[in-house]
Amino acid sequence: MASLVLPKGFTYVVASTFSPVWLLLWQSIAVGRARRAAGIKYPQLYAEKAEADASRQAMVFNCVQRAHQNTLEYLPVALIGTLVTGLRRPLLAASLMGAWTLGRVLYTLGYASGDPEKRTQRGGSLGSLAMLALVLTGTWTVGEFVWAEMQ
């Protein structure tokens, strides 16, 4: 039976992969508040264009909802990149996941202004840079494992 030995420091990887739980809870609360303020009823996912054009609150709801949805779209990539990278470089992986999570907070705060252009201002693009780094380091780590297996 094969066993897996996790590297020293992998606890930081585990801790960092839990940080998006708090991010998603916070985003969900923000979406609910914006939904109530805009009067958008369930199951409507977004305010219609006419609603958003007529109401700033509806536009803010769309922006907050989109920030949350975008986070959900990228979360699997961030988690996989963190876990794979963490098998060789746990502190780097944990740091990048922390940067991604912080970047998503900044992204959400910018987007929640109601102006979609502000989503990457004030550090909102930090998450994109961390995501790129996780994809690249994860790919490199997979290559290392495959190369070692071929030897």
Automatic annotation (TrEMBL):
<dbReference type="GO" id="GO:0004602">
    <property type="term" value="F:glutathione peroxidase activity"/>
</dbReference>
<dbReference type="Pfam" id="PF01124">
    <property type="entry name" value="MAPEG"/>
</dbReference>
<dbReference type="GO" id="GO:0016020">
    <property type="term" value="C:membrane"/>
</dbReference>
<dbReference type="InterPro" id="IPR050997">
    <property type="entry name" value="MAPEG"/>
</dbReference>
<dbReference type="InterPro" id="IPR023352">
    <property type="entry name" value="MAPEG-like_dom_sf"/>
</dbReference>
<dbReference type="GO" id="GO:0004364">
    <property type="term" value="F:glutathione transferase activity"/>
</dbReference>
<keyword id="KW-1133">Transmembrane helix</keyword>
<dbReference type="InterPro" id="IPR001129">
    <property type="entry name" value="Membr-assoc_MAPEG"/>
</dbReference>
<keyword id="KW-0472">Membrane</keyword>
<feature type="transmembrane region" description="Helical">
    <location>
        <begin position="129"/>
        <end position="148"/>
    </location>
</feature>
<dbReference type="GO" id="GO:0005783">
    <property type="term" value="C:endoplasmic reticulum"/>
</dbReference>
<dbReference type="GO" id="GO:0005635">
    <property type="term" value="C:nuclear envelope"/>
</dbReference>
<keyword id="KW-0812">Transmembrane</keyword>
<feature type="transmembrane region" description="Helical">
    <location>
        <begin position="12"/>
        <end position="31"/>
    </location>
</feature>
<protein>
    <submittedName>
        <fullName>Membrane-associated proteins in eicosanoid and glutathione metabolism</fullName>
    </submittedName>
</protein>
